[in-house]
Amino acid sequence: MIEGVALDAYGTLFDVYSVEQKCEELYPGFGQRISQTWRQKQLEYSWLRTLMGRYENFWHVTEDALRYTLAELGLAADADNIETLMKSYLKLEMYPEVPQALEAFGSRKKVILTNGDLGMIEPLMNRTGLNEHLDGCLSADETGMFKVRPEVYQLAIDRMGIEKSHILFVSSNGWDVAGAKAFGFTVGWVNRRGLPPEELGVRADYEVTNLLELALAIEEER
Amino acid sequence: MIEGVALDAYGTLFDVYSVEQKCEELYPGFGQRISQTWRQKQLEYSWLRTLMGRYENFWHVTEDALRYTLAELGLAADADNIETLMKSYLKLEMYPEVPQALEAFGSRKKVILTNGDLGMIEPLMNRTGLNEHLDGCLSADETGMFKVRPEVYQLAIDRMGIEKSHILFVSSNGWDVAGAKAFGFTVGWVNRRGLPPEELGVRADYEVTNLLELALAIEEER
Question: Which residues form a coiled coil (chains A, B) (predicted)?
């Protein structure tokens, strides 16, 4: 039934909150707040820019989000600090179960489908060795839009040549889960933070707490 | 130069956080967190539904956002409480300077341009008497999309018959300010909460702390 797997990257394979320590080092006492607001604004800007029809790539959006975050918290947006924190986005920690889980998905085609442009996602894949477990990386950047636009999800179908309900889309982000399910994928929600589902009129097909659990559930159904 | 004024409603004319007291009554200790998460989720859902192409009106989105909020905070979504809190959205407090400010804009055409559907905005206008100061209310509901889509801002041009740079669009919401400026309006930001500007590549033409201040600035330039 499931012939291919398309995986979100940020939050799903890589921990976007692993920048917190570096934030705390540079701005003592503010690590957690910077990390959380930064992520929130990064997402907001991706949605708003897509709605406005004023696309800039995810690296650009991520830096804009960081600048806003520092301003909102009343912190100095020192150029060196900005550069250091942006570089930390190229060194996000991978969730520990990811390589084993990717193997457990077996011989199915596996791709990343991410908002990140290749310039920011490829360093992560090389650094963690994930590229060896995957058949490629599809970036929203090709469409000039971000998720949850259908054009972005369509990339997976075009590249894998698999009918959409036979593609398992995997994300830890509730909004991404909703977008992918509305698009028509079979969807697995890796609910790492134990959040309730987003109230957007659709539900994930699978809800798990980590990626390996999902891979094993899919294998069991074969 | 400015021939017409289009005003956002929620956050700009009416205080969306004025529901906090009712939230606190029903869920002691959680008033502020409910009020803030509810607003955040209401906006997120408006953006995400527009991106997904799965429009539901703002009333529906507002109730969905409330349900999510209660679930996230681990609070019971009792049907009576939901009804009470939704009704409080029809009784939001108006910011005190609004009627005087609208008069200070003089004989220019003045309309509301809101995400709210007429069923939820008209009770507020009637209750506060604002309808007497305005030439009408345009709702995003007509377009089946929410701000910051250009189609929504276009409503003001179509209805007022004024060229867009001669329309002053007014909002307290930074994201709405960015959307309206990207669209091409002259934009006044009523920065009620003293926030930094959103980093979306555009800036408001005017930044003020309340609506009367803006009306006086515009009058002075005549």
Answer: none
Q: DSSP 3-state assignment of B103?
A: helix
Architecture of domain B4-14+92-220: 3-Layer(aba) Sandwich (3.40)
Yes or no: say if A101 and A130 are a contact pair by the CB < 8 Å rule.
Answer: no
User: In which order are the strands placed within the sheet that holds A186-190?
Assistant: A137-139, A109-114, A4-7, A167-171, A186-190, A206-208
Model ipTM over 0.85: yes
Q: How many CB pairs under 8 A join A and B?
A: 87
The alpha carbon of residue A73 is apart from the nearest alpha carbon of chain B, in Å, by 9
For residue A150, which residues of chain B lie inside 8 Å, CB to CB?
52-53
Closest CA to B49 of A172, A196, A205, A148: A148
The CATH code belonging to domain A4-14+92-221 is 3.40.50.1000
B58 touches chain A (CB under 8 A): no
The tokens describing B117, both together, are 């559907």
* Cβ contact B201–A56 (<8 Å): yes
What confidence tens digit (pLDDT) does each residue in B84-115 have? 999 999 999 999 999 999 999 999 999 999 99
Please report the sign of the dihedral spanned by the C-alpha atoms of residue B173, residue B176, residue B181, residue B186. Answer: negative
Note the residue count of chain B. 222
